[in-house]
Design brief:
Shape: elongated
Structural class: mainly alpha
Number of domains: 1
Number of helices: 2
Strand content: under 5%
Keywords: Membrane, Transmembrane, Transmembrane helix
Largest sheet: none
C-alpha cells in the first residue's frame, strides 16, 4: 500500500463529519430540506482534500522525518 499522508486522512474525516452535521441540521420538528446532490459533496470533498495533501502540500504533520 502507498505511504498515505496521515494529515490528509485526518482532515478529510473531520471535513466529512462536520459537513454531514451541517447538512442534516434543521429546526426542531422539521425535516432537513437539502437537495440529494448535496450529500455527494462529502466523498468528493474528502477525495479532493486527500489529493491536495498527497500531491500538492506533501507535508505530513504526523509523520515527522528525522
Amino acid at each position: 500500500m502507498k505511504n498515505r499522508n496521515v494529515t490528509g486522512i485526518v482532515v478529510a474525516i473531520i471535513y466529512s463529519i462536520v459537513l454531514y452535521g451541517i447538512l442534516i441540521e434543521a429546526p426542531p420538528g422539521k425535516v432537513p430540506q437539502t437537495p440529494s446532490w448535496a450529500f455527494l459533496m462529502i466523498p468528493f470533498g474528502a477525495i479532493a482534500i486527500q489529493a491536495l495533501f498527497d500531491f500538492v502540500i506533501k507535508y505530513d504533520f504526523f509523520k515527522e522525518k528525522k
